[in-house]
Amino acid sequence: CPMSHYMKYHDSPLYYLTAREAAEIERNGDYSRAAKVWAKANRSSRNALNQEWSANRQDFCLMHNVRLQRQKFDQPCAGEEIGK
To answer: What is the pTM of this model?
Structure first.
């Protein structure tokens, strides 16, 4: 039923505005900021599915940011030999 599909995903306009902003920031690679905006989207949501989605996106962004920081840390400095 189309109406039940609508109600399943219905949420506040603020949630959708903030979620679109978070997705754009995430696509641009600013995972730390995206995590903060996903948290804001989560707080503005009144829908359990969207709350779960935004919490999962926030977690992903936080963990991806950690992975990126580790990769930077693990990279050898210019002129440094790997394995020393």
So the answer is: 0.77
